[in-house]
């Protein structure tokens, strides 16, 4: 699992919905493309017409809107929804109105100009008189599908509005509607019209309209599917044209630059599409744009799943490191990500190379695709050259962004595009640029351009980050290659065994699965043998995400009554819950902290941060129980403390201290604001240069190795930085919304399901770090956080112990336990607390001491009836070295997780915990008086009143002050307290000036006149479009003769034909059977076809069951030698009576000395006829010049119960 996936575990419910939608959409997308290949094939003219009509409109959308909406406009919408007083309704209404107005106008213009728009993306041969009908079909489809630009815009804008409201599912699931509609339209097409009769057949008007309208309908429904969900958010959207002064000018100025960048990035795609689109214009078949896109679809799968996820996870961390000028840290994180990505991508690349043909056959080799799936296989092989360079360059690009350098990567990207264009265009002038090789050649040019891009990106980035080691990366790649090559050889061997069975889908599919699994097993085995650490880490992470093996095994055996038993036992417990206040959306903020008995001091105000007031009688708290995690707090006067910090101080020009959380003898913990990334963080301050500080920093670094999302991450570590007149060290950690377990237990014990599920999550997370030889060492109710989605976060991995080495709540008999075993013991105490609201070794964390007898804690069932016996037994086995009933003690977290997985039997406690957090877990009975200024939904805040800095002041229960929350209890400190008039109290942290937004309805001074603003938008856009048009015209008119020679075969330029046709002598002939066992097909009969005797013939072998040569071959035929290159206008054939499909082909290579006999892929079709009569004439228009001709039979007439073809005579006319 990638770090990105790990970091989003706290949103597991939303992530699961998004992942399911994305997975299903991706599967349906593959089905759609496979169905296209089934109906039209891969390299046919109809496939090109369909795909060009669709792909050009997609490219135009991304050019004018895709990048703008995602990178510029959408963030503004998100910010307005979150910050504006009306929830963003006014601003978002204006924004959507402006976007859709501009996008609608652009769509209208582009649709009307569809013929002009299609020109730069299509080869000029499409516009010749011979292909007029095909060009007309393409334009019909393009006209009908072009309005999708507008509806895609609606979908993206509404989807991002939903994302900002926390509803992620609809945007991921809506494309499923589009795919289902597209699949349905293609299925209807197949039923009504079937397969095309020949590769050169064009669409009728009805067919083109059906495909175009069907594609548009899918996009319209995809956009419409978002509307009900947007209405459900309560966001009041309506058309608003009062744009002046609404803040849209800045947005659209940003959009102009994004548009220009998107224009440049689209040039490479435009040139590639233009070149590959010409593959089917001459012979009707070839590796064109459809093949190029299909191969790209395959190799992009591991990129999108692995590289993008790793880059997304890497970017925030390296951005923080770069902001503190920790270039060594940036380089180290970049190297780690490069190694992880290539560890997966390199074996995937070798797998693609080894299984290219079986993969292409399974996905694109069914139905009509059986004839030309090899085009996709060769293109995929060409892509393999560039997968690793593309990955490395992609990650280098993100490192540049972390360094806040967008200019260098933009220039490098332009250079890459330029190299791609030069290589692609140059390829068209090579002898290999035949129709069958255009897509592989263009893909190879794309791959080589990223080899160049990788080199320049790494070279330039190394100047900025000397810690990047090319030697280290190469050494890693060599080690991975050593493991991957034998795996690829095994997969290729399995593929080779199936080479003669490509007519069987099941055999080929089994080849792909078997070859992939066998190769994977070999790779993993060799990687573990050679100790490739990245592979070991990936395997360990995946196994933890799938639950430890013992847990999985026991879970499968668990009885379905397990969860029911827990639910039944919950009823007795829930009856004694104290009444809880209702709160719609408590925004609590959690952070690691180490506190104890004496409140800390606010340095600026000179007041004491007091603990929460005692609970009212009848609640589950204990008034005299310490409220905090560890150790006595320091009450030293401010001028004597080693750290002098004040609210508003900045660290490294980035982290602004906002609120003190904990003050210890030698350290302080503050809530802070990250000015660069715009979010809250937690900062632990320590005096620089001290031994204890070095130990704490070492603990923070050691804990940073955890990639499990359930641990709050260490974001930054600085050993020395100025603060006032002193030097300090500091550690920056993640900040998360949620509620501590300590707060939840204030209102009573958890249910059995909640307790078991929560402890299982804790044990599973700890098992992962225990495998690395470290423990948490401070698992307690104050370091466990429940997020608003009901999931858990664990604060202070090793860091809590580093900041406060002495834990006052450690039991004497557990002080000498190793860290892992101590964590398990603490898990037992946690389960005890969740079931009884008592703490073994207390009082602590607001909980009373657990009762004991005979030197052992009483078990939960001995204290309270109704506790689950299973959980009671587990508690005893974790806490006591000699459990009751002669049970075995539990000493490792993995076993705890396994046992609890068995107990839960699939039950999930997250939804119940989510409801608890959202109800609010503040102390009952402490609601403020009505005249205190709190809104009706505001939770109470603890008192914070003036007092001398050296003595705690005790609050008056009758007069809680809302003005100052208790920073010592950060969960209380950031609960929102807003009245209906949206007037914030001081409980809300100040919003930085660069993030503040005035009400969207307030008037604002425009940045300039409306004419000036629009001029700055329209002029650059017109210049960009003019640049595109110049490129297109240069391609069309600057190389008018190039396409004729770029086909790679014999020159297709019409020769100066004599006034009357002339017969061309056939010097020799030979049989052509490249797929036969011995490569021959009745060679002794070949002379009969050119002897001038219509009674003698060359006959094929007998084939059974299938007129297409029994399904075993694509065709057989005769190769004719004309002695020298001659002009060929037509070929007259005398065949069997009806039922023969015949093609006339010429070599793709120009003027070869010998005819290509190894594969029919080395020939291109220049004429064909299906169900040819006995006397057939194949006319070549325009005439071709070639020495060798192939008369190729692809379907045979019946001969009794079998099928057999015959060629009696062949005559060639020039």
TrEMBL record:
What sections of the sequence does the record tag as coiled-coil?
none
Where is the signal peptide, in residue numbers? none
Q: Which residues form the Protein kinase domain?
A: 655-900
Q: What is this protein called?
A: Putative peptidoglycan lipid II flippase
User: Which residue windows does the record flag with biased composition (Low complexity)?
Assistant: 1045-1061
Molecular-function GO terms, alphabetical: ATP binding; lipid-linked peptidoglycan transporter activity; protein kinase activity
Q: What keywords were assigned to this record? A: Cell membrane, Cell shape, Membrane, Peptidoglycan synthesis, Receptor, Transmembrane, Transmembrane helix
Instruction: Kindly list the residue ranges recorded as spanning the membrane.
Output: 12-40, 52-74, 95-118, 138-158, 170-194, 206-230, 251-271, 304-323, 344-364, 376-397, 409-430, 436-456, 477-498, 504-526, 1017-1037
Q: Residue ranges of region Disordered?
A: 924-1010, 1041-1094
Transmembrane helix recorded as keyword: yes
What PANTHER family does this protein map onto? LIPID II FLIPPASE MURJ
Which is an annotated Pfam family here?
A: MurJ
| Cited SUPFAM superfamilies | Galactose-binding domain-like, Protein kinase-like (PK-like)
Entry's Gene Ontology cellular component terms:
plasma membrane
Q: Name one GO biological process term.
A: peptidoglycan biosynthetic process
PROSITE patterns linked: PROTEIN_KINASE_DOM
Q: Where is the composition biased (Pro residues)?
A: 954-968
Q: Where in the cell is it found?
A: Cell membrane
Q: Membrane topology per the record? A: Multi-pass membrane protein
Native source organism of the sequence: Naumannella cuiyingiana
């Amino acid at each position: 699992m990638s770090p990105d996936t790990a970091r989003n575990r706290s949103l597991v419910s939303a992530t699961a919905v998004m992942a399911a939608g994305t997975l299903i959409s991706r599967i349906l997308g593959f089905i759609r493309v496979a169905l296209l290949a089934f109906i039209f094939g891969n390299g046919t003219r109809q496939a090109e017409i369909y795909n060009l009509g669709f792909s050009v409109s997609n490219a135009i959308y991304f050019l004018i809107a895709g990048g703008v909406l995602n990178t510029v406009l959408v963030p503004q919408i998100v910010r307005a929804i979150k910050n504006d007083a009306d929830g963003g309704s006014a601003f978002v209404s204006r924004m959507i109105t402006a976007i859709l107005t501009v996008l609608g106008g652009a769509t209208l213009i582009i649709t009307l100009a569809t013929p002009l728009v299609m020109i730069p993306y299509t080869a000029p041969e499409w516009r010749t008189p011979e292909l007029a009908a095909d060009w007309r079909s393409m334009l019909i489809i393009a006209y009908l599908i072009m309005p999708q630009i507008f509806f895609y815009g609606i979908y993206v804008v509404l989807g991002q509005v939903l994302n900002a409201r926390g509803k992620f599912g609809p945007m991921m699931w809506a494309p499923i509607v589009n795919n289902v509609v597209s699949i349905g339209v293609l299925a209807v097409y197949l039923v009504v019209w079937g397969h095309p009769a020949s590769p050169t057949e064009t669409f009728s008007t009805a067919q083109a309209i059906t495909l175009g309208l069907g594609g548009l309908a899918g996009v319209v429904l995809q956009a419409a599917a978002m509307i009900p969900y947007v209405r459900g958010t309560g966001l009041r959207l309506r058309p608003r044209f009062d744009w002046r002064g609404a803040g849209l000018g800045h947005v659209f100025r940003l959009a102009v630059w994004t548009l220009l960048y998107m224009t440049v990035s689209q040039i490479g795609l435009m040139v590639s599409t233009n070149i590959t689109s010409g593959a089917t214009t001459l012979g009707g078949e070839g590796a064109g744009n459809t093949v190029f896109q299909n191969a790209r679809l395959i190799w992009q799968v591991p990129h999108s799943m692995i590289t993008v996820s790793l880059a997304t996870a890497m970017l925030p961390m390296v951005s923080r490191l770069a902001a503190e000028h920790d270039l060594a840290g940036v380089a180290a994180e970049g190297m780690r990500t490069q190694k992880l990505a290539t560890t997966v991508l390199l074996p995937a690349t070798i797998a693609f190379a080894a299984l290219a043909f079986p993969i292409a056959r399974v996905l694109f080799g069914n139905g009509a695709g059986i004839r030309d799936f090899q085009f996709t296989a060769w293109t995929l092989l060409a892509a393999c050259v560039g997968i690793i360079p593309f990955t490395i360059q992609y990650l280098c690009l993100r490192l540049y962004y972390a360094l806040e350098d967008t200019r260098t990567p933009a220039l490098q990207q332009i250079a890459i595009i330029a190299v791609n264009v030069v290589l692609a265009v140059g390829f068209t002038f090579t002898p290999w640029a035949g129709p069958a090789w255009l897509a592989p050649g263009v893909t190879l040019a794309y791959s080589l351009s990223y080899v160049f891009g990788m080199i320049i990106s790494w070279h330039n980035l190394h100047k900025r980050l000397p810690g990047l080691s090319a030697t280290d990366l190469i050494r890693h790649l060599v080690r991975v290659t050593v493991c991957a090559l034998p795996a690829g050889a095994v997969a290729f061997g399995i593929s080779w065994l199936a080479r003669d069975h490509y007519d069987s889908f099941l055999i080929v599919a089994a080849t792909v699965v078997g070859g992939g699994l066998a190769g994977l097993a070999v790779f993993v085995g060799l990687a573990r043998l050679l100790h490739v650490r990245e592979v070991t880490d990936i395997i360990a992470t995946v196994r933890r995400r799938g639950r430890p093996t013992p847990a999985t095994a026991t879970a499968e055996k668990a009885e379905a009554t397990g969860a029911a038993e827990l639910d039944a036992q919950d009823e007795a417990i829930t009856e004694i819950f104290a009444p809880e206040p209702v709160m719609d959306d408590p925004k609590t903020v959690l952070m690691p902290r180490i506190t104890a008995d004496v409140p800390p001091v606010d340095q600026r105000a000179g007041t004491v941060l007091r603990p929460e007031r005692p609970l009212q009688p009848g609640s589950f708290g204990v008034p005299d129980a310490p409220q905090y995690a560890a150790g006595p707090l320091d009450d030293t006067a401010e001028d004597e403390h080693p750290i002098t910090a004040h609210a508003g101080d900045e660290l490294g020009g980035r982290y602004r201290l906002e609120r003190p959380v904990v003050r210890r003898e030698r350290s302080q913990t503050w809530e802070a604001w990250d000015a660069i990334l715009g979010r809250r963080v937690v900062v632990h301050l320590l005096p620089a240069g001290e031994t204890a500080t070095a130990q704490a920093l070492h603990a923070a670094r050691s804990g940073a190795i955890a990639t499990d999302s359930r641990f709050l991450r260490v974001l930054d570590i600085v050993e020395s930085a100025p603060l006032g007149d002193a030097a300090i060290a500091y550690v920056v950690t993640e900040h998360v919304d949620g509620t501590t377990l300590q707060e939840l237990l204030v209102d009573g014990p958890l249910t059995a399901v909640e307790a078991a599920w929560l402890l299982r999550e804790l044990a599973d997370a700890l098992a992962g770090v225990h495998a690395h030889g470290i423990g948490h060492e401070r698992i307690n109710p104050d370091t466990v956080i429940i997020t608003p989605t009901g999931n858990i976060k664990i604060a202070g991995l090793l860091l809590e112990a580093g900041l406060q080495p002495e834990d006052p709540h450690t039991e004497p008999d557990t002080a000498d336990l190793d860290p892992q075993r101590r964590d398990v013991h603490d898990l037992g105490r946690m389960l005890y607390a969740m079931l009884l609201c008592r703490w073994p070794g207390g009082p602590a964390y607001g909980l009373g001491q657990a009762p004991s007898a005979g030197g052992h804690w009483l078990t939960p069932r001995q204290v309270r009836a109704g506790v689950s016996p299973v959980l009671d037994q587990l508690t005893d086995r974790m806490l006591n070295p000699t459990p009751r009933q002669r049970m075995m003690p539990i000493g490792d977290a993995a076993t705890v997780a396994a046992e609890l997985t068995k107990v839960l039997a699939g039950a999930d406690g997250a939804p119940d915990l989510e409801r608890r957090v959202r109800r609010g877990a503040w102390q009952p009975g402490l609601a403020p008086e009505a005249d205190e200024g709190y809104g009706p939904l505001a939770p109470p805040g603890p008192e914070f009143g003036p007092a001398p800095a050296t003595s705690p002041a005790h609050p008056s229960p009758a007069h809680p002050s809302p003005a100052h929350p208790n920073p010592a209890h950060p969960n209380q400190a950031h609960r929102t307290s807003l009245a209906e008039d949206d007037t914030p109290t001081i409980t809300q942290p100040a919003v930085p000036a660069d993030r503040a937004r005035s009400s969207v309805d307030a008037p604002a001074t425009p940045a300039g006149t409306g004419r000036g603003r629009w001029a700055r938008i329209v002029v650059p856009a017109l210049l960009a479009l003019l640049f595109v048009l110049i490129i297109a015209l240069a391609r069309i008119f600057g190389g008018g003769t190039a396409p004729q020679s770029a086909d790679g075969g014999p020159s297709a330029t019409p020769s100066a034909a004599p006034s009357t046709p002339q017969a061309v002598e056939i010097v020799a002939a030979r049989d052509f059977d490249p797929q036969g066992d011995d490569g021959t097909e009745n060679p002794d009969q070949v002379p009969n076809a050119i002897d001038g005797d219509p009674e003698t013939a060359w006959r094929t072998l007998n084939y059974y069951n299938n007129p297409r040569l029994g399904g075993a071959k694509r065709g057989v035929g005769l190769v004719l030698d004309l002695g020298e290159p001659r002009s060929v206008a037509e070929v007259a054939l005398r065949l069997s009576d009806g039922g023969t499909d015949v093609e006339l082909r010429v070599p793709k290579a120009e003027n070869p000395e010998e005819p290509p006999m190894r594969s029919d892929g080395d020939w291109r079709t220049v004429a064909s006829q299906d169900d040819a009569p006995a006397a057939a004439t194949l006319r070549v228009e325009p005439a071709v010049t070639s020495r060798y001709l192939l008369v190729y039979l692809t379907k045979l007439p019946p001969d009794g119960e079998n099928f057999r073809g015959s060629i009696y005579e062949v005559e060639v006319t020039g």
